[in-house]
């Protein structure tokens, strides 16, 4: 029993290397995945057409994940987003088809409603002090009910104008799919807001240490509500784009985005930073999921494998980010 | 001769580029009370974490009873007979005293079920010996900090401790409680337990310790034997040279009133408090822990709401509902728990400095994008002005020592220049050098016209620093001291004058 203290712990250099690996693991994983698929399927996978397609498909998940990122940065969870997006899809279709509202007006109304739902979530959490998991699960369930009540459970498919389909399916700028452009604008705006503005510093402070933020004179409740509002608006946008892509307002259509968004956000927290949520990380996280799905599709893997992939990746993501934290603290 | 209980030699440890320990040594004999002193950031906590198995040394040896050991985790430290009582006591609040004492220990069972009765009869005598008066089935959350300490000591003894490490044991104990603790320490020593006593309170070190090891900047710089142990010798070793005592010219003349507090109450901690705060004044609030000082300050700062009473700020009614409103009205607070309430430890020094002053570093109010060059310049200036020891302004603030962290919290308010700055225990857990810096800083702020409130439990701190001192006891202001009357003794006397006599009426 004559160890020195060193033989047990890792050398500082090894720790640094491991920490760096943990921070870059998601990006390395993404690149390896792309490389592997390219080798395994050299004709179908590594094409501009396929990459554009993947990004186009992923844009909706990226938008809703970007919104969720804001909620988790301020230290809360928003479980209402998938249900909310489904309801927004039904509602926007209904407003256009049944109420004959002009498309821009219908979209605007639904996005404002998304903000309002975020506001309600935020008020319940900050003023009534209800745990955000419970609050948003409750609100989400109510929204599902409302959406069934509105549509009687029947998808709104007939009479959806072609112009509305073009919102998601169109390529209005330089032949780039609209989804990608909208996603880039939304994530870009969120990134600037969080990383480059005074408000962003407050958002990061509230998430990092609410007590210190409060005593530093920051209005913590306001910032938290803002996080929920951002999340709510992005959910609305994703719901609208999904309805446009599907050409119908279908209850529960956007529900699976909840899981995808959480996986993307937590994968993102393991990217470049040790367990800190950030918008760029979420983008990378959503990209990993999108390419993973795409690869599974190309190789004809059954649909259920997507669930297994998504669940596994969520756990790996959280594991990676806590590994990064553990290594940086030792 | 038996080998010493514990020898640590040449221990090195680096945290994220900061060298916390540069090869320290420590030798502990059985049955001695060994002092460990040093400025914050000197490496005391790091060494303790390594001994406790919470961190791993980069190099160096630990020898227990003559054979080298590797302490990979806390369980192994316990197996070696080492027990640690940290500043922040870790208990499960809803569980009973007995359950907490037995936490993590194998328990006697009867027919497969835990036999609490048998366990209690074993623990009971030990609990009484260390002075626990509460019943063993009381919930820990209902007990005082002092009793929590005793429970920890009891836990250590049940685990057959041969060494108990106490980190700032009296930081939140009253004088009477501390006295009890000292008796227990002597009792433990007589029974052959070694005690490593870590404290900034030199009086206690002088009184209790047989030998003292002094750390400075990650080195063990001196081992002082009992016969050579004096305050000046200790201070010199800690600071590495003679300290100048900050004495200020008390040229303060009472200027106009900035803040008036009228009959402010929030029961049971704050009762009918009234005072005026003047421009350019350093007002001390003294008294014992639990006298209601922090609670009073929280009312003024809008962190809590008063039951009754009113405040007037600059001639206008002032009733902040949130700290944000108080800050907007020109107040600033340096909270007591700087790590929990003052800082974002993983964020950079610059981030933490600018937190209350964000609109000053944006390109324009209409487009509030951060101007990083300006942020950097302002932060650099504060780091220089306050002599904050940090590799850069982008270093995570959690890697700095306590004194430097405190300077960051104070620096935040310098950037904002509030009318009133409140500092709650500004030098708690801060080393002597940084303490002098912080005191100088407070004086210079007052000279520039800021009104400063300093809350302190250390009666030594206020006389040098303050123009006026209010002493609180049991939620009331019981004494106002000015000029030459501000002395350590006067503060202590007033703090205790009220003790106990009013409690029955509350």
Strand-helix topology:
The complex is a heterodimer of chains A (330) and B (506).
Chain A: H1 12-40, H2 48-73, H3 81-97, H4 103-126, H5 132-151, H6 162-169, H7 178-196, H8 198-208, H9 210-215, H10 220-246, H11 257-269, H12 279-298, H13 304-329
Chain B: E1 6-15, E2 18-28, E3 33-38, H1 44-51, E4 59-64, E5 67-69, H2 74-79, E6 82-85, H3 97-101, E7 109-110, E8 113-114, H4 116-129, H5 145-158, E9 163-167, H6 175-190, E10 194-198, H7 202-208, E11 211-216, E12 219-225, H8 231-239, E13 257-266, E14 270-278, E15 282-287, H9 293-300, E16 308-313, E17 316-317, H10 323-328, E18 331-334, H11 338-342, H12 349-353, H13 372-385, H14 402-416, E19 420-424, H15 432-447, E20 451-455, H16 461-465, E21 468-473, E22 476-482, H17 488-497
Parallel strand pairs in B: 3-10, 3-11, 6-9, 9-10, 15-20, 15-21, 18-19, 19-20
Antiparallel strand pairs in B: 1-2, 1-4, 4-5, 7-8, 11-12, 13-14, 13-16, 16-17, 21-22
Give your account of this protein's structure.
The complex is a heterodimer of chains A (330) and B (506). Chain A has 330 residues and is mostly helical. Chain A folds into 2 domains: 59-254, no CATH class; 256-330. Chain A has 13 helices and no strands. Chain A is globular and about 70 Å long. Chain B is built from 17 helices and 22 strands. Chain B has helices at 44-51, 74-79, 97-101, 116-129, 145-158, 175-190, 202-208, 231-239, 293-300, 323-328, 338-342, 349-353, 372-385, 402-416, 432-447, 461-465, 488-497; strands at 6-15, 18-28, 33-38, 59-64, 67-69, 82-85, 109-110, 113-114, 163-167, 194-198, 211-216, 219-225, 257-266, 270-278, 282-287, 308-313, 316-317, 331-334, 420-424, 451-455, 468-473, 476-482. In chain B, a hairpin with a 2-residue loop joins β1 (6-15) and β2. The longest helix of chain B has 16 residues, at 175-190. In chain B, strands 6-9-10-3-11-12 form a 6-stranded mixed β-sheet, with helices on both faces. Chain B has 3 domains: 6-239, P-loop containing nucleotide triphosphate hydrolases (Rossmann fold, 3-Layer(aba) Sandwich), CATH 3.40.50.300; 256-330 and 419-506, P-loop containing nucleotide triphosphate hydrolases (Rossmann fold); 334-417, no CATH class. The model of chain B is unreliable at 243-249 and 499-506 (pLDDT under 50). Helix content of chain B is 32%, strand content 25%. Chain B has 506 residues and is α/β, with parallel strands linked by helices. Chain B is globular, with a radius of gyration of 24 Å. Classes of the chains: A mainly alpha (330), B alpha/beta (506).
